[in-house]
Design goal:
By secondary structure, the chain is of the alpha/beta class. It contains 14 helices and ten strands. Strands 1, 2, 3, 4, 5, 6, 7, 8, 9 and 10 form a ten-stranded mixed sheet that branches. The relative contact order is 0.09.
């Protein structure tokens, strides 16, 4: 008999999307699963809809709890999960009917601890996928924990929790923290623990992008977004203390530095509201100074070396130089895109020339 999967769905204010979500799970071609619907104190009719489904299908368990946020809801599901494997789906998303069959078969075939598929981003206004020029051809890649970590650092989209199937034992001592970007705080720890990872280039998870979601509301920058920097800092220190692979450490450091610059830029764009006395920008500048020598030696940060040297200046001058450095980097980016397009047109012209 095939192994049992526990599918955990945190639910809060997703009434318009919930039936599509649950329906896509109940229609799975892989049928040996329990569905744990976690009503996280939703003030709409989500709780009633959950109970309605539970009466119709004995594979469904419902938890009604006081609102505690996405992490709290996922953790509540993990605490009662009885399956051999764990899957997560957000209550406003949906999945293709063969997603869990594909992921489970990959786990078995590759003797893996985590299987992952690619995902589609869908606009909630018309439930149509955003256009992409990348062909999802079913390519499979696999490797050990270092391979998984490298791919995670190269492709941040792999931080997402919901397009994966995990061995339950990976969560034995892990739970999601009550922070923004909760996926990022846990994924690298899971990837570090696993022995084998497998990924398939097939869009089987449908991520519905809506304006009123937690992440949609975070489009306006606030200091709460610094949780994203905390992820990068914590991840770099975690990896630095445990592995010696220089490629991975250089990538982790590169991502951390880019996050520092991102938050500095966002604060400077709305400095009167967010950081009027430059308190947090000083903190970010001092982080660069603290690791000054190390950042200068990181070859992936070569384009930022002058900016790193600027960090020695006082905050007012650094603010000024930082603004102009961003314009310089933007110029380089635009020139790079133009050169790429010119080369592309040239190749096409040569191909069809007589």
């Amino acid at each position: 008999m095939s192994a049992k999967i526990s599918i955990i769905v945190p639910i809060y204010k997703v009434e318009p999307y919930l039936r599509q979500c649950v329906g896509s799970i109940l229609a799975q071609s892989y049928t040996n699963f329990e569905l744990i619907l976690v009503d996280d104190g939703s003030p709409d009719k989500c709780g009633e809809i959950c109970d309605e489904y539970a009466k119709k299908d004995n594979r469904i368990k419902v938890i009604h709890k006081k609102n505690g946020g996405l992490s709290s809801a996922r953790n509540a599901g993990l605490d009662i999960a009885a399956g051999d494997f764990i899957g997560f789906i957000d209550g406003d998303d949906f999945v293709d009917t063969d997603m869990y069959e594909i992921l489970y078969n990959l786990l078995v075939e590759y003797n893996a601890d985590v299987a992952e598929c690619s995902l589609k981003i869908i606009k909630s206004s018309n439930l149509q996928p955003l256009e992409t020029d990348k062909i999802k051809d079913g390519t499979v890649e696999s490797g050990d924990n270092l391979f998984a970590l490298k791919r995670l650092l190269e492709k941040p989209i792999r931080n997402v929790a919901c397009n994966k199937l995990y061995k339950k034992e990976l969560f034995a001592d892990l739970r999601y923290p009550d922070k923004l970007y909760e996926d990022g705080f846990l994924t690298y720890k899971i990837f570090y623990k696993l022995k084998k990872y497998v990924f398939i280039e097939l869009d089987k998870y449908n991520y519905v992008q809506r304006e009123d979601s937690i992440m949609g509301k975070q489009k306006k920058y606030s200091l709460k977004n610094l949780d994203g920097l905390e992820v990068q800092e914590e991840r770099y220190q975690f990896l630095k203390s445990r592995i010696k692979n220089q490629t991975i450490l250089i990538l982790a450091e590169y991502n951390l530095f880019r996050q520092i610059l991102f938050h500095y830029k966002m604060m400077q764009q709305d400095s009167k509201q967010i950081d009027p006395d430059r308190k947090f920008r000083k903190m970010l500048k001092n982080r660069i100074i603290k690791e000054y020598t190390r950042y200068l030696s990181n070859y992936r940060l070569s384009e930022y070396k002058n900016l790193i040297r600027f960090s020695k200046y006082d905050i007012a001058l650094f603010d000024y130089l930082f603004s102009h450095y961003n314009l310089y980097l933007k110029y380089l980016e635009i020139m790079g895109i133009l050169k790429y397009q010119i080369k592309k047109v040239s190749r096409i012209t040569k191909k069809f020339s007589i």
